[in-house]
């Protein structure tokens, strides 16, 4: 792959970016998700996590969901519906619509720089699109991603032209990443 990183730490070594398996998919305040209970439309719905980390769910009442993975919320709802005697064998699925508690920043030579909600599976090219795309002065292949890895800030060079032409795979974004697109030097 053509991705490389220069560490901002004392070693200054060049390294590969971390694997995408490190994605944090736990829910937090203001995140929006769907709960679907098979065959039970009145128990299915869309929920926004309150600032205190809870939701109000039919029959069950207030439930703490902040810090839980979607599958853990599904297991919790299934267990409460079964154990409280509402359903014999509930089948619950949870689908996250918006990760508002986790954000990324896209800065520099993009049309609408700013902070954006993290979306599962988001890539650098998609994040730049969220920010309105490149300006006419953008140095596309100068794009970098700054990320905290093991308590240290690392910068990853992302060859956007090679990605968009299909020569390289896209780079997965993680919550709290900062994507920076510099301007070209003429």
TrEMBL record:
It holds the Pfam family Poly_export. The keyword Lipid biosynthesis does not apply. GO terms for molecular function: polysaccharide transmembrane transporter activity. Residues 22-96 form the Polysaccharide export protein N-terminal domain. Residues 104-153 form the Soluble ligand binding domain. It comes from the Bacteria. InterPro entries: Poly_export, Poly_export_N, Soluble_ligand-bd. Gene3D superfamilies: Outer membrane lipoprotein wza domain like (3.10.560.10), wza like domain (3.30.1950.10). It comes from Sandaracinus amylolyticus. Residues 1-26 are annotated as: Disordered. Keywords: Signal. This is Capsular polysaccharide synthesis enzyme CpsC, polysaccharide export.
């Amino acid at each position: 792959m053509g991705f490389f990183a220069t560490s901002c730490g004392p070693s200054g070594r060049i390294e590969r970016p971390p694997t995408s398996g490190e994605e944090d998919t736990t829910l937090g305040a203001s995140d929006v998700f769907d709960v679907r209970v098979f065959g039970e439309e009145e128990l299915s719905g869309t929920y926004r996590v309150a600032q205190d980390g809870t939701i109000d769910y039919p029959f069950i009442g207030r439930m703490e969901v902040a810090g839980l993975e979607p599958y853990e919320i599904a297991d919790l709802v299934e267990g409460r519906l079964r154990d409280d005697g509402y359903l014999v064998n509930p089948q619950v699925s949870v689908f996250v619509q918006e990760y508002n508690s986790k954000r990324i920043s896209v800065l520099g030579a993009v049309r609408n720089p700013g902070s954006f909600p993290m979306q599962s599976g988001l890539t650098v090219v998609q994040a730049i699109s969220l920010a309105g795309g490149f300006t006419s002065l953008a140095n596309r292949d100068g794009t970098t991603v700054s990320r905290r890895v093991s308590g240290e800030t690392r910068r990853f060079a992302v060859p956007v032209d090679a990605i968009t032409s299909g020569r390289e795979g896209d780079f997965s974004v993680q919550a709290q990443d900062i994507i920076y697109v510099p301007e070209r030097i003429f």
